[in-house]
Amino acid sequence: MSVDKYKGHLDPLIRGLPLWVILAMGIGLWVGYTAPEIGKALDWGIPVGLFLMIYPAMTKLLGIAAAFWFPHASDRGAKERCRVV
After folding, report:
1. CA dist 72 to 66, 81, 83, Å?
2. Same domain, yes or no, for 36 and 52?
3. The total number of structural domains that make up the chain
4. What is the chain's percent helix, strand, coil content, to nearest 5?
């Protein structure tokens, strides 16, 4: 599968994602170096941010797993949507 056939279909913002990630990392390092007290003020933000990022994926996985554990549950389609490859 060639990547070239999808090259024109991506949004410019998505195509520049590696640049945005590197830029955000650089800004974070610069802020941490120039103002280290900000890190202590945002100390609670890391676990809260990780929870907010992971929560939607975990609820979807738990819903699919519940369909296997409780086969007579109301969402019978979850078992068919999850295939073991």
Report:
1. 10, 16, 18
2. no
3. 2
4. 75, 0, 25
Task: Output the pTM of the full model.
Answer: 0.46
Residue 20's H or E segment, with its range, is helix 17-34
**Residue 17 is part of which domain span?**
1-43
Kindly give the confidence (pLDDT) of every residue in the chain, 85 residues in length, as a single tens digit, with 9 standing for 90 and above.
566 666 667 677 778 889 999 999 999 899 989 998 887 888 888 889 888 888 888 877 777 766 666 666 555 555 555 555 4
Tell whether 21 and 49 lie within a shared domain: no
Contact 78, 63 (CB under 8 A): yes
